[in-house]
Design goal:
It is built from five helices and six strands; from the N terminus they run H-H-H-H-E-E-H-E-E-E-E. Helices cover 31% and strands 38% of the residues. It is α+β, with helices and mostly antiparallel strands and 195 residues long.
């Protein structure tokens, strides 16, 4: 909870208590089992591995990029909820060579016309050593600030080949469930956590 409040107070300048209240609503609506209590390292490893395996199996672009990636950071279960003020939170695992090496949380806050609850996952594929080193050395990595991140959509599959893959970070959003508009990862703050 403290990490969430500090992340959103830095991000928006709004009162962190309003965002903390949204987080409490998210926890109560989802049963709290995965959001309020941190998942164990073993559970997060299993969920992360399963999410990546499914993404690579079902998405041609992800498969092409995954084969070339230096590392993949996967957040298998992000929970987003809001009514005017919104928040999203989840935990992820950094995989190198398919093996877990570090754990992170992803937190974002928003405000505006929004209402609902949804879950989704996302993965970041680091295509070069410099992008990965920049990420690993940061104390708080914010999507949309710093290195360029390409959010991959369905149309990209037609033009992407192993020769057109560029350096940097590619993002995939997957397994969206729920009825909330405005899905996105822009502004998400990613911070390393201990497991």
């Amino acid at each position: 909870m403290e990490r969430f409040e500090s992340a959103v107070s830095c991000r928006s300048g709004r009162k962190p208590r309003a965002f903390a209240m949204i987080l409490l609503i998210v926890v109560s609506l989802t049963g709290g089992s995965q959001t309020s209590e941190a998942a164990s390292a073993a559970a997060l490893n299993a969920d992360g591995q399963a999410a990546i395996a499914s993404l690579l199996k079902n998405d041609l672009v992800a498969r092409k990029l995954g084969a070339e990636a230096k590392a993949i950071l996967v957040f298998p279960n992000i929970v987003k909820a809001g009514f005017m003020f919104g928040g999203q939170i989840g935990e992820g695992v950094l995989l190198k060579g398919g093996r877990p090496v570090a754990y992170y949380n992803s937190v974002a806050a928003s405000y505006g016309l929004q209402a609902g609850l949804q879950t989704f996952g996302y993965a970041l594929m680091f295509m070069d050593d410099a992008s990965l080193a920049d990420f690993e050395s940061s104390s708080g990595f914010e999507i949309g600030v710093g290195p360029s991140i390409v959010v991959v959509d369905k149309g990209m599959a037609k033009t992407l080949t192993t020769k057109t893959i560029e350096k940097g970070i590619y993002a995939f959003i997957f397994d969206q469930k729920g009825l909330m508009a405005g899905l996105g990862i822009q502004g998400s703050k990613i911070t390393r956590i201990s497991k």
